[in-house]
Each structure stands twice: as C-alpha cells, then as structure tokens.
Amino acid sequence: MRAESMSMRSLSLTVIYLLLLGFGMTFLVGCGTSPSTVVTVDKVQDPPKVNSSQNATSVQGDPAEAIPTTATISVGDLDAAITANKGWQLIDIREAREFATGHIKMALNRPMGDLENNLAQISKDKNIVLIDLNGTRAQTAWHVLVEKGYDQNKVKVLTGGMLQWRGIVSSAGSGSSGKANGGDSADTPKPEAQEMVGGC
C-alpha cells in the first residue's frame, strides 16, 4: 500500500513538473523576438518620407531623402547665432508635450503633423532653423518647406536636435545660457533644455 502511495505521489509530482515545464517553455518561446516584431520596430525608427503628390505629409517605409550638408547647422553655430541675435526663426516641430518639457529660447512650436497648416506663421524672408528631438523629423520638415517654396539655402536643420543641444550647449555653458536666462553663472544649464522626453 505504501509503495502504491509513493508511486502515485511520484507520478503526480512528475505530471505537475511536466505541466510547469510546458507552461514555462511556452512563456520563454512567447518572449522571444519574431520577424514581425523586428519589422515593426524598423518601420517606427525609419524617418518619414514626404510624398509631394499629396497635400499632406505622408509616412512611407523608406527613409527620407538626404538633405544637403549645407542645410544643417551645428549646435555651436546656432548658439553663436542666438547669442549674436541674428533674428533667425526657430521652429520646433516636436509635439506640444515634448516642447513643454524643454525647448530652445524663442523657438516656436509648430508640430510636424500640423506643419503645413502653420506655413503662414513661418517667414520666407528669415533664416529658419528646424528643431526636433534628434534631427530626423526636422529633415522631413525641411523637405516640406522647400517643396512649399521656401529657399533651401535659408532653411536649416539642427544637427542632433534637442539631444545634441542639451548635451553640448547646456554642459558647455555657452553665451546664450547663464545670466541671460536668469542663472548666476555660465555653467548653469539652460532652463529651456533641462528636461526631455522621448520622440524623433
């Protein structure tokens, strides 16, 4: 009787063990990466491409055409232009929630999704600097503005976007930070670039 009881107990434990092992394997396999997951991530990371045959900006799978190197401006050059009060129009194309977490002083928020509806607020007579989180969306915005008749020599994209601005300018204590923004020293990080959230 005791041997039969031990045999049943052993069999029950074996069945439970196998069930747990089966469930565990199911979860392990379910947590792996699949090709569809990789494709989805790649599509999200690709910059949108402007389709000039449509009135609005549409997103397609391929990266946007490269912009000329003369259409970019470095963080240092932009900082110098702001310090020299060159009167450039700074257009931050991030979403309002991103803009609210930190932006460059005097930048106007004109989100990429609504850019074409705000063209009347973007001067064709001034030099324009397009700003986003990392420079990707700004390249698409550059194409939109040029296709809408803006002089490609007057429209620039901030290289590296707000991530670059925050990393280089805030830590460098440039001329546009410090006392000009209410700080006590040139080493004080710029308040308009202290907080950031994700995005492109």
UniProtKB/TrEMBL annotation:
It holds the Pfam family Rhodanese. CDD domains: RHOD. Residues 84-174 form the Rhodanese domain. InterPro entries: GlpE_sulfurtransferase, Rhodanese-like_dom, Rhodanese-like_dom_sf. Transmembrane segments: none annotated. Residues 172-200 are annotated as: Disordered. Residues 172-186 have a biased composition (Low complexity). This is Rhodanese-like domain-containing protein. It comes from Desulfosporosinus fructosivorans.
